[in-house]
Amino acid sequence: MRKKKQEIIPETPEEMKAEIQNDIEADVDAIMRKYDRESNTRIWTGIPKTIVGIILALFSMYCIYVTLFANFLEQVRLSSFLGLVIVMGYLTYPARKGKMQANYMPWYDIMLMVLGAASFFYYTVNAHTLLNTGLKLKLQDPVYIIAGIIGLVVLAELCRRSVGLPILCVAGAFLAYTLYWYIKDGKMLAKIVHELFYNENGLLSTPINVCSKYIVVFIIFGAFLEKTGISTYFIELANGLTGRYAGGPAKVAVVSSALCGMVSGSSVGNTVTTGSITIPMMKKTGYDKNFAGAVEAAASTGGQIMPPIMGAAAFLMADYLGVPYSDIIVRAILPACLYFLGVFLSVHLEAKRLGLKGLSKDELPKIKELLKETYLLLPLFILIYLVCSQTMTMQSSAAWSILATIVVGVVSNYLRMRRVLKLTRQSDPQAAGEAEKVTGQLFRAVNVFEALENGGRSCISVAVACGVAGVICGCLTITGLASTVINTIVTISQGKLFLGLFLTMICCIILGMGLPTTATYCIMASTCAPILIQMGVPMVCAHFFVFYYGIVADITPPVALAAYAGSAISGGSPMKTGVNATRLAIAGFIIPFIFAMSPNMLLVDATWYDVLLITVTSIIGMYGVTYGLSGFNDNELSGSSRIAGICRRLISIAGGLMLIYPGIGTDVFGVALVGAVMLWRKLGNKEKPAEA
Questions:
Q1: In whole angstroms, what is the distance from residue 295 CA to residue 316 CA?
Q2: Which residues contact 536 (CB under 8 A, 6 or more apart)?
Q3: Element (H, E) at 207
Q4: Can you tell me the distance from the alpha carbon of 89 to that of 463, in angstroms, rounded to the nearest whole number?
């Protein structure tokens, strides 16, 4: 079939580009399967593949319908949602990694799928009856208890397959403590099942509620955006804007990851998607392989803090704080820009140190051609406008944006086929008639079905993680462990805010290693955020604090999944890549301290003057810290000049940190130190770097 098509239409630049893209996607798929459990899926072909695809697509349509129109009882909506997730999850994820037989599902997976789904649907069908039945009668009903136990066990197994073991280890520890707490007080096991499976404080609590109501619709929206080619457009746009400058490919990685990451919301997925293009470009330019992988990992991780979507955890934050999602978006803009500025400065200084140049004019896309495709951004602009204007609910805003994406996809497909047809007519006029038929067939394929299918598949792991996070939150609530943790850390910190922030940071990073951002945030919002609030930190700042450190855990060794994915593409050392990524993303470790001690950065009771002042001082401070960590050429000097270079770096870091701590005195002193270092370097050091 392929051969016949090539006889009709000669190979065009568009087709050559598509073939190269297919090769890249094959490598990306292999890396994703290795480092991202969400990508380790069953192999379905032929009719079974179509059936599974239809199930996933119908689930996406069901989620859109429920969030927009249905008025179900809360217990009915959530239990049916989880029942469908169980069905799709076991159809998608095998019991273990490795080679899989196509169109094969073992009997035990079928049994787990049926029993697990039946447990949740039992709750769905009997929700009204169970709500009107007394607790004592329910606890004496063996079906009631058995269904709850099976549902929790099957959900835990699906979590192991789709998310990983770390979150289950955390959940297991909390569950063991809950069992001990209940047995000590002489309570029944059935009461635990009731609290965790049926009660709104357990499995059906805020995380899964927000997931089913908001997150899934935005995930489906992201799947539609991917089908319009917006990710590729972001990379080409970043290439056109920054590719020509010193160390251009690394700057392309930073900009494109910021743009793609705000849509994808996945550190590993963004690292592999954009990194498959940018990392080879960086290595070709002259960057070290460990540095190239680190740049992509740091930038891709930061994509989860970039508005407007910010990953799934931002929706949970809006619900926890009881504020509109648009409020979260506005407050997140300045910290996100400062984060990427820090990564960008590190990349720029490294390029200057190595003497790297940008890409040649022939290698860069033409800005005029890119401007013609700005219509691809229309769905994103519509989403931002609808969410920020609050003219509609978040669900409705996402639904209308999905419709806009379909229209944009039709237009994009049509224009692309017109270009192919034009090239075909120029090279072989006799094939024009056949080419028009092919163009019509491709034009009619808008990929709506594929977008719905991919959206449904992407919802599985997020929903499972939110469900397990709900169980953990339930354990914290019914045992009162959250209060114990809060009192312990407050006692250790002795009322000192900086020490309390530092201890909270350590908790978030350790807990976030290997856990999805949504689950990390849910746990930390229940345990550590109240600590900061009790110490006087505004509520929104406390939640942003734990949100940021839950995200940077993806690049913090020893469990740095995004860095591991970047090293797989670059061929570097995973640990060295993780260390470099942590250094590059130093802004992500500093910025939360800034807005925790100076809420003006998050626009809390701030005037325009306050925002301007903290922006300027933060930028100067970020440059001072970045310069001190990178060293520019100071670390390559010899003799007395080397000692002077080390002193400059230390003073620069000290000045940058001074600017981070709020206060006029520290700001003036910090600016003076950073300015003195820059002047010292310019006037006092004339010695050239020693040759290697």
A1: 28
A2: 497
A3: helix 206-210
A4: 10
DSSP state of 613: H
Q: Which residues contact 433 (CB under 8 A, 6 or more apart)?
A: none
**Amino acid at position 327, single letter:** D
Token look-up 């690049």 returns 555
In three-state secondary structure terms, 494 is coil
Tokens of 481: 């462990």
Cβ pair 541, 602 in contact under 8 A: yes
| C-beta neighbour count of 116 within 10 angstroms | 26
Element housing 165 (H / E):
helix 165-184
Q: Which of 166-172's residues contact partners 24+ apart within 8 Å by CB, and which partners?
A: 166/513, 166/514, 166/515, 166/559, 167/465, 167/468, 167/469, 167/514, 167/515, 167/516, 167/519, 168/468, 170/472, 170/511, 170/515, 170/523, 171/468, 171/471, 171/472, 171/475
The first and second tokens of residue 117, run together, are 């789904």
pLDDT of residue 633: 59
Structure tokens given for 259: 């743009």
Task: Transcribe 335-394 into DSSP letters.
Answer: HHHHHHHHHHHHHHHHHHHHT-----GGGSPPHHHHHTTGGGGHHHHHHHHHHHHTSS-H
Tokens of 640: 């007395």
Q: Rounded distance, CA 55 to CA 87, Å?
A: 9
SS3 105: coil
- Residue pLDDT, tens place only, 310-369: 767 788 888 888 888 888 888 988 888 888 888 888 888 888 777 777 777 777 777 777
Residues in the chain: 692
- Position 248: which residue type? G
User: pLDDT by residue (tens digit) across 165-192?
Assistant: 888 888 888 888 888 887 766 567 788 8
Cβ(555)–Cβ(578) below 8 Å: yes
How is the chain split into domains, by residue range? 40-207, 214-341+352-455, 607-692
Cα 69 to the chain's mean position, in Å? 28
**Cα(6)–Cα(171) distance, rounded to whole angstroms?**
55
Residue type, 199: N
Nearest to 207 by CA among 566, 533, 602, 471: 471
Q: Cα separation of 412 and 665, whole Å? A: 55
Q: Of 484, 589, 494, 483, whose CA–CA distance to 535 is shortest?
A: 494
**Distance, CA of 6 to CA of 99 (rounded, Å):** 33
H helices present in 390-480, as ranges: 394-427, 432-444, 448-479
Q: Could you tell me the pTM of the whole model? A: 0.78
Q: What is the DSSP letter of 63?
A: H
Closest by CA to 299, choosing from 328, 335, 334, 274, is: 274
- Is 480 strand, coil or helix? coil
